[in-house]
Amino acid sequence: MPKKFIRRFLPEPQAVKNNKILRVFGSVLHEPNLWHLNRRSAAGGFCIGLFFAFWPVPFQMWLSAGVAIPFRANLPLSVATVWVTNPFTIPPIFYAAYKIGSTVLGTKPEHFEFQFSWQWVVESISTIGPAFLVGCAICSIIASAVGYFTLNWIWRFQVKKAWERRRLARAKAKVQAQ
């Protein structure tokens, strides 16, 4: 069941409540729905995390957490899902986003060489920026929608399978009892 699998990776709510750094947020983090793992909260957290994962901004985890709280989505899952984009996956994902954006905008993809400097970033905003940002927005929306519906479907499928197993076990026990 997805619930058992996901729960292994999430922190205990009590550990978060007792964390000295997180006490700044007061009772906001004590909302049980932020920590409860059910189909709705898990799918919402996964969706929110995937949505912000494709944004080319720093502090994606904070943005994800900030949106998960009012939507009462699973907070740890929302924050963890942002790490779909990490230092190893960012280059191919962002390159694909740029290609998608340039295709949608109908512009010819420009050849560019990445340089690790603010000057390069500022100069590139006008040339590759629009296509890149449009591509990131498209990837963000599609990934979050696909993630939401896929997790919902997997969760429902697993629950149906568990119900069927229990039904068969009860029928088998009833036959053996006779």
TrEMBL record:
Residues 22-163 form the DUF2062 domain. The keyword Repeat does not apply. Keywords: Cell projection, Cilium, Flagellum, Membrane, Transmembrane, Transmembrane helix. The keyword Transmembrane applies. It comes from the Bacteria. It holds the Pfam family DUF2062. The chain crosses the membrane at residues 42-63, 131-155. This is DUF2062 domain-containing protein.
